[in-house]
Every structure is written in C-alpha cells, then in structure tokens.
Amino acid sequence: MQTETESTTAVTRGSAHLPQVTEARNPGMDLDMDWVMRAQANRSAIERRAATLPGRRSVKKDYQAAWLLKAISMIDLTTLAGDDTPGRVRRLCAKARHPVRADLLEALGLERLTTGAVCVYHDMVPVAVEALDGSGIPVAAVSTGFPAGLSPFHLRLAEIGESVKAGAEEIDIVISRRHVLTGNWQALYEEMQQFRAACGEAHVKAILATGELGSLRNVARASLVCMMAGADFIKTSTGKESVNATLPVSLVMMRAIRDYQDRTGVRVGYKPAGGISKAKDSLTYLMLLKEELGHRWLQPDLFRFGASSLLGDIERQLEHHLTGAYSAAWRHPLA
Ligand SMILES: O=C[C@H](O)COP(=O)(O)O
Fold this sequence. Notes:
- By secondary structure, this protein is α/β, with parallel strands linked by helices.
- It has two domains: 11-54, no CATH class; 61-323, Aldolase class I (TIM Barrel, Alpha-Beta Barrel).
- It contains 13 helices and ten strands.
- It has helices at residues 29-38, 43-52, 62-72, 86-97, 102-108, 125-131, 153-165, 177-181, 185-199, 216-228, 247-264, 279-293, 310-323, and strands at residues 11-13, 16-18, 75-78, 117-120, 139-143, 170-174, 203-207, 233-235, 269-271, 305-307.
- Helix 7 (153-165) links the parallel strand 5 and strand 6 (170-174).
- Helix 7 runs parallel beside helix 9, helix 9 (185-199) packs across helix 10 and helix 10 (216-228) runs parallel beside helix 11 (247-264).
- It binds glyceraldehyde-3-phosphate.
C-alpha cells in the first residue's frame, strides 16, 4: 500500500498499460478504485466479483473435496499471536477436535475427523494440553526464541525442556539463520543436534525460515544438515517472515527429503507453514507432495500444514460442496 507522494512509471501487463501516478494518496479502498478507473478496467465487474468473493466455490469436484478432508487431518491448527488468551486457545482446541460441523461429518460418512495437531507458544501449552486431553491430538510448541531464534542459546534449550515438561509432544524449533547465511554448516549441525537432544521423546520440527535464507541452494543445504542432525520434520517458515511457504521452496525441500530417504532409508516429514490460507492452495501442495514423495507422505506423521486460517476456508468450501451435488465419492476419502 502506497501512502506518500510518489511517482511510478508505466507498467506493462499483457496489453494493458497502467498510467503514471503522481499525486499524494492515502491508503484505503478509494486508492484501489482510483487505480481501476485509471486503468480503464471494468469497474462494475470487479465490484460484483469482489462482492461474491466470500461465498465463491473454488472446489467443485468430489475428488477435490475428498482431498480437503485429507488436508484437514494434516493441519497444525495454529495460533501464534501476542494477544493469545486461554479462551482463544480452548476454542482452537475445540475446533481441532471437531474441525467440521457434526451434520457435515455425518453427511460425509465419517465417524471422526480431527486436525493433525494444535500449535501454540510455550505459555499456552498447559491450556492446550488440558483442552485436548483424551483426543489423541498432540500439542506442538514453537520454541527456541521463536520467531527470530536470537535469545541466548542456553535459554533456547531450556525453553524446549519446559515445553516438553508441560506436555508438548512436538517442538517446532527455529534455526539460527546466520549459520546458513555464513555457510557455517558445522554450527548449524551442532545446534540442531542439541535441540534434538533437548526434545527427548518429543518430535522435533526444524523451521528453516526459508524466506530469510537467500537462495534455494541454501534451503537445500540447510534441509540436509537439519535432517542429518536428527530433525523429524523440516518446516519452511515461522509465518512471521515477509516470505513464507512457496511452491519452489517446497519442491526443493521435498526433493531433499526424497534424496535423504534414498541415501539413508529414513523418512523425514515436511511442513509448509505461513500464508497458506486457501483450500485450493492446500490441494496444490498435496498434489506436489504426492508427485514428489508419494503416497506414504500423505499422512499426518509425515506431512503437516502450519496454518491459522486454512481450516476456515476448507470448511466453507466443503459446506458449499455439500449443498451442491452429493456423491458416493465422499465416502471414500483417501486412505
Ligand atoms: O506455523 C504456522 C504459521 O505461523 C501460521 O501462519 P499463518 O498465520 O500465515 O497461517
């Protein structure tokens, strides 16, 4: 959003040439509409489309809906906000237990569907553990000075221990990006090894913060080093960087996982996180996963979406779909 006096040059996009903009402007809808008028776009069509956006169906086929059910079972339902409260976390946990409405579940022919995990900051771990008691849904705690990972090393290790003690079964650690950016792979390996040891029996997901690693080559190398040092999962991002999960980064990380399995026989999980909020995007990720790593990875023990708002869009798409044509395909979500 541009807020000050500025001068932009004409931009060519297809055959449309956007005009120069030189006057002072304020943020807001007026600005967007102003742009539309100048570009001589069809304003009423854009307004109509915008008005129907919340209700539009992007998932229209039974097989897509079946994949969305699969996606739900692999979401780390996340809240990582400074204003998180026990009440918000309890509501999130209730949603993780019952991610779709009971009548929808019945219509889908499913007895039970839950998310893969609930992901919170350390302070909220006890609340989440209590709220999920008996559900079998694990609590994941972000740790090691999330999101920057720049607190003193002994405190980062201690934070892992505290979260495990509080009942977190999964720990999402952030790596020190500077080790990657300076090519200090030994330091990254040793850091990851110590994080792994501090987790004990808990699963450890290594957050690479790929948007801050500078190149895909660095992403591949960091993936490999973290897997060698014992990461159970490698994860793209914290959700707090300006660039989070992307398909190119996912392709690189999935291929690193495949390569690692080919060489060692060890299966490492993959978690794209940050900015994945649309049902349709989740389908794209699952297709990529299936193509690159195969059927075995289509399970919550080897794949998760780290997402705070994806479930809402999936639920909306499923509701729309159910009010449309219903078919027996619903009864056979992917095993
Ligand atoms: O790991 C999870 C992310 O922090 C969630 O990011 P999001 O709010 O963009 O979905």
